[in-house]
Amino acid sequence: MKGIFLINSGLGFVIILALILFFTKLFGLIFRKIGLPQVLGYIIAGILIGPAIFGELCGFSLIGLEKGNGAEYTSLFLLNGDGFSTGKDGLAIFSKIGVLLLMFSTGLETNLQELKRTGPAAILIACAGVLVPLALGTVISLPFGDIGLGTDNIYNCIFIGMILTATSVAITVSVLKELGKINTKLGTTIVSAAIIDDVIGIVLLSVVTGIAKAGATEFETGTFEWFKAQWWGTLIMIVAFFVVAIGLGFGVSYLFKWLDKKWPTTRRIPVFSLAVCFLYSWAAEEIFGVADITGAFLAGVVLSTAHRASEYTNKKVEVNTYTMFAPVFFANIGISNISFNGMSGMIVLLAFLAVLMGLIGKIVGCGAVAKGFKYSWRESAIAGVGMMARGEVALIVTDKAVGAGLPEGFVLMTVLLILISSILTPILLKVLYGGKKNDGGDGKDKEVEAPKRDMVDLAAEELGYADPNQTTNAETK
What we know:
Layout: E1 2-7, H1 10-33, H2 38-49, H3 51-58, E2 60-65, E3 74-79, H4 86-109, H5 112-141, H6 154-163, H7 169-178, H8 185-215, H9 224-229, H10 231-262, H11 268-287, H12 292-304, H13 307-337, H14 345-372, H15 377-386, H16 392-403, H17 411-433, H18 454-462, H19 473-476
Parallel strand pairs: 1-3, 2-3
């Protein structure tokens, strides 16, 4: 492994950030122009500037990883892997902050009142959108024991299913808004179900990763770590985390409402909010054994109850997230986790099967539940297709699954899933709706009072899903 410049200092890491930020924004804009999510552009940028293609196939890359996957190549900037490396470990730290801020922002955008209004239909559609793809993904993984899955690696099979459960709220929102269907009963139900879908998926991810990690480590009998290592101890700690986090959440919510009333729209509010986010994240994983992203998400949900403070906080957090930390997180997936060296036909076959099951699972599962609530066949198909899109949450779940033991080669599956679902979802929704904006027709697809979704509008536009010329709720008030 050779490098023209060895990145082993803080100043050296600055050039790595410069490369990542430049190329992620460049490819993000290109993907946005062709109607695809910017996050895909971020990942592709990471693949191109990392060793996955030019390093392994051409022998030279912009950014190289020492002690990577065994491929020999020369890189312009080599991230040292001996001991602590400012380059490699710095990239991991920035990526960790990025994923926590993404989940914190998602929590801040959660509208609990809207979830209550949509009732059992959204909840059951969301449950079907999680359980059916989860089951299909797990089942199709069982025959692939030769590539790290199968019955001997059952948790990896479950992780494959978990990756298929996530839904991209931003893609669905942007298409429904473009068609004028976002404020209909069906549109509101789909958006709420997508949010609930991600909540359920994140909670299940915490349970699975907690049990998987617990079963893989031996501890001295009778210690606290031994207790958490037992499957029943893991479940107890997960329940305890939610009880403690929600209990403290009432006090945190009251505190931020008081802060917002006394010092409205001041920088101290988002600063204190970030402190809560990181505290919840650390406590979730280090004390309770729950995924850190669950802690960040729950911190956002808690603060979302202080409406004005949460909106102001999210505007400030999103600036830092999408300017710096999120591009680094997504690019690092392409740089560190994607490799074509040793890629087998079995992995490619599983990837395509998983993508197919991921699409079918959402359409069949969510559509069947919608039909059970007496929606028409067309409306039921719309509900299934509306839940089909995948985005940044699928990448976050994949990142956590890889950290818990899933082979890195399956990251390619997630990239394919996002790419294919991002292309098909808008096309199919427009076909099913007839490509016409809502005209106040009859049936269940009636206009209902529009909930405030300013933060979703902002996130969707930043990720490249929204129409930047479209008027948002905040602009019309």
